[in-house]
Amino acid sequence: MADLNKFTIAEARDALRKGDVTAVELTEACLTQIEGAGALNAFVHHTPELARDQARAADTRIKAGDAPAMCGIPLGIKDLFCTKGVPSQAASRILEGFKPEYESTVTQNLFEAGAVMLGKLNMDEFAMGSSNETSVYGNAVNPWRRGNDDTALTPGGSSGGSASAVAADLCLAATGTDTGGSIRQPAAFTGITGIKPTYGRCSRWGVVAFASSLDQAGPMTKSVRDAAIMLAAMCSHDPKDSTSVDFPVPDFEAALTGDIKGKVIGIPKEYRMEGMPAEIEQLWADGTAMLKAAGADIRDISLPHTKYALPAYYVIAPAEASSNLARYDGVRYGHRAKLAQGDGITEMYEKTRAEGFGHEVQRRVMVGTYVLSAGFYDAYYNRARKVRALIKRDFEQAFEAGVDAILTPATPSAAFGLGEMKDADPVQMYLNDVFTVTVNLAGLPGISVPAGVDKQGLPLGLQLIGRPWEEGDLLNTAYALEEAAGFVAKPGKWW
Amino acid sequence: MSIDRETAAKVAKLARIRVPEDALPALAEEFNTILGFIEQLNEVDVEGIEPMTSVTPMRLKRREDVVTDGNQQAKVLANAPDAREGFFAVPKVVE
């Protein structure tokens, strides 16, 4: 069978169960593709031996019958997840050489379901970035190009390696994490599906922490159905993460009926940003028309505090990061700077962190330190937390008024060229997350679905935002949108 | 609010990140760009609003107050840049 690496999870699951293909064959097909895809710089740590072992075990399990859906599915794992005995360094120099003695709960759940890990995926350092340009491993590259132009484009970030690997069919799916848009923006830039579930659905245990009140893991897949299958395998209540909820995990795939008749879809006027490209505007209008044609009830809504989401995020996320990243001190793991004669422990901390953290991470840690420092805590941090409460209230009011889901663009543009934002000030880069960051602040589930291409042939995504804990319903609306949009374009292979 | 070179140096010190003297002016400028962006929050009327502590209202779970972990010295030290005789080793802290 040819091109096994191009399978969706659902196709592979069905073929595995029928005995048409083995997990070993699927895994070998992916490993071969990964080997030939160095130019994408998506996989940064390769674990072929582990993958083969896991695949053989999966085949045994499948033969015995009653294997879960993810059994034998070859995945890429974002470098932010701690994986036992396998380098896990959050794309940072400061975690150079770090091999965890434990497994993150999300990867543990996936492995218990029989999934296969092909290796670790590139990302922005500590998940801080929107273009995968802050990685210690160098840039991940988008498999998509602008027509015949060979300019290297960003796959987005921070889950850029995950997005690139899935879009290029190096694996069947990948894990991502999303603090301000880090699953949904790269998914949109690469023509794949990515869902960030409700805060608390996935355990954060063993996921390198960036901003703990915002971070959530989620799947990055080739279809909405795959997102439903893989998300169910990732979620669990975990006593090791006190913010993970003790709710049953529904069968998300069973929710995919495609029937959205009578569902109320909100179109928030505040997401119509000044200077938004006409193509994004058109995509949004097209998506609205598709949902309407599928029987949804379209309603204009207002989320008045939208404008303040990014500034609130750029107080809260750095504040939490400055606290979380205090643990990187050169004592317990990772990099320690070479010290000069007479250097004490303070010099060790300062030199280690200066060498170990990249520029963007240093900047965010220091901004966080500043907004939490004496005299500014109220003016910045507490005010941002109040604005966050208002942003969440905007959504609650919309849902109380009967809105089932909210449709917005996923990103303000298509993928841009690597290096194109080099001279922009940091705030320009932060604007990438303008449509996605509200969802993290409000703790809601959000999904990016590929819905069209721009005039240069690059994919564009739409975002649907759902009610808390109703990922099944959200996935079903996304499924209806996916069906209507009929996005089938794939990047031409140049790598 | 404008951040000068001296404040930038102070923040770097608090964050325990060594920033060379000559990089401070550029750093201060970046802080000012970001803080200028954040200043927008002052436009919002937050009178009477409680700062959010938890995005999902929930009671933290409780468990029995018993030891559930431990005896993993080798694993704890396995990734240390410098471990000796069962301890993390660091430069001299006390004279």
How would the blueprint of this fold be written?
The complex is a heterodimer of chains A (495) and B (95).
Chain A: H1 9-18, H2 23-35, E1 43-46, H3 48-63, E2 74-78, H4 105-112, E3 116-121, H5 160-167, E4 173-178, H6 184-190, E5 193-196, E6 216-221, H7 224-234, E7 264-268, H8 278-293, E8 297-301, H9 309-324, H10 345-356, H11 359-372, H12 377-400, E9 405-409, H13 426-430, H14 437-441, E10 446-453, E11 459-466, H15 471-485
Helix pairs in contact in A: 2-3, 5-6, 7-15, 9-11, 9-12
Chain B: H1 5-14, H2 24-38, H3 73-77, E1 83-84, E2 87-88
Antiparallel strand pairs in B: 1-2
Helix pairs in contact in B: 1-2
Pfam family, one (chain B): GatC
GO biological process, one term (chain B): glutaminyl-tRNAGln biosynthesis via transamidation
EC number (chain B): 6.3.5.-
Give a structural overview.
- The complex is a heterodimer of chains A (495) and B (95).
- Chain A has 495 residues and is an alpha/beta fold.
- Chain A has a single domain, classed as Amidase signature (AS) domain (Amidase signature (AS) enzymes, Alpha-Beta Complex).
- Chain A has 15 helices and 11 strands.
- Chain A has helices at 9-18, 23-35, 48-63, 105-112, 160-167, 184-190, 224-234, 278-293, 309-324, 345-356, 359-372, 377-400, 426-430, 437-441, 471-485, and strands at 43-46, 74-78, 116-121, 173-178, 193-196, 216-221, 264-268, 297-301, 405-409, 446-453, 459-466.
- An 11-stranded mixed sheet of chain A has the order 1-3-2-4-6-5-10-11-9-7-8, sandwiched between helices.
- In chain A, a hairpin with a 5-residue loop joins strand 10 (446-453) and strand 11 (459-466).
- Chain A is globular, with a radius of gyration of 21 Å.
- The model of chain A has no long low-confidence stretch (mean pLDDT 97).
- By secondary structure, chain B is mostly helical.
- Chain B has a domain at 5-43.
- In chain B, 32% of the residues lie in helices and 4% in strands.
- In chain B, strands 1-2 form a two-stranded antiparallel ribbon.
- Chains A and B meet through helix 9, helix 10, helix 11, helix 12 and helix 13 of A and helix 1 and helix 2 of B.
- Chain B: Belongs to the GatC family.
- Chain B: Keywords: ATP-binding, Ligase, Nucleotide-binding, Protein biosynthesis, Transferase.
- Chain B: Heterotrimer of A, B and C subunits.
